[in-house]
């Protein structure tokens, strides 16, 4: 009688057994390892791009950096989808960047100036895409076609990412010899950091190649304590008004067009979220993907608002703008979870009421573009409200403050009204009545005036 062979259809561990006779042909487990390396490089590129948004004064550059951070997380999704199809463990909810990669990117991010950061970030992007190219050249076009298909999607973004800030970097401080020399020294340092990171990855366990000496003790970022500000967007006097939307000097204040200004002012929320994105560590990777999408949406809303205001004949200097909230050791465990909860559970859901009214009002005034903007805005913010439900309580839990999602929502509403100066008796009266609460929490618009 022949020996009985028992096959466990759920056991694929044999695909992970080390074998040495493949003569350079990539096995599925090899591809898995190489994709994970790229995944963590994408994540760290996303983090430093987001972390440096407030290091650049230019409003347009801030938006570009948020978009690039978002693109990196889209690449992470593509990579993780393929990793999950291959043998070997997945990324996992508790996974974090390998130590040597995290150390390298921390060094790259602690740059002495915005132009130095741009040099380092663009160098990292060039090396990242070089790795993609080398991997693509090794993959079998039939055996590993699913991986190549993912890499083709990632390749689409190459020009946008690697071309960022190219002219500014090429001519950085061209007429200032000392600053130019400092930039060249930083670029040499960046190359040394990257080489050390690669050497550590190749080194036998226990060997520790030394990192090059860091050339500055006064980094300008990431997440600077004082955000760089674009003078084209003068700030509101917060001693007079709780928010820029309440400033009666705004030229759109008493008309439905104020909805467009409210859209335009969402860069403040986006810039605040960059501090949260960079500053909160060891959350699941899904959190960072959702946060990057949310932050990029806030930038898009601001861009569409500013574009429309300019089409209407206004200048950004005609308005006062809300500043971002800055991360510090004092507020990381309170202000930032509260900010995110208030944004997703108070401000965005309450805004649906006036945005819905604005859709019809703009059409009545013959302004279809502003009407459609509000439709897209609502579509995006429905997604953001779901993000808040998913991550609001998790943020508090992560900050050593265990609460339920319902508690977070109620607390966020109460704190928002307290911040606006309402008495506790008034707050208690509207807390569980959504329309009445939103009437207190935000402003209505003059819909019949354009």
Written account of the structure:
The protein has 450 residues and is mostly helical. The protein is built from 16 helices and no strands. The protein starts with 27 loop residues before the first helix and ends in a 9-residue tail after the last helix.
Question: Can I get a quick summary?
Answer:
This protein has 450 residues and is an all-alpha fold. The protein contains 16 helices and no strands. α2 packs antiparallel against α5 and α12 packs across α14.
- The average pLDDT score comes to 86
The counted number of beta strands is 0
User: Level of helix content?
Assistant: 55-70%
Count of DSSP H/I helices = 16
Radius of gyration: 25 Å
SS content category: mainly alpha
Main β sheet profile: none
Strand content: under 5%
Which segments are poorly predicted (pLDDT under 50) over 5 or more consecutive residues?
401-409, 433-437
Q: How are the SSEs ordered, and which strands pair?
A:
Elements: H1 28-51, H2 59-83, H3 99-109, H4 114-138, H5 145-155, H6 158-162, H7 166-170, H8 177-202, H9 258-264, H10 267-279, H11 285-311, H12 335-364, H13 368-398, H14 405-419, H15 424-430, H16 434-441
Helix pairs in contact: 1-2, 1-3, 1-4, 1-10, 2-5, 2-11, 3-8, 4-8, 9-11, 10-11, 11-13, 12-13, 12-14, 12-16, 13-14
Features:
0% strand, globular, 16 helices
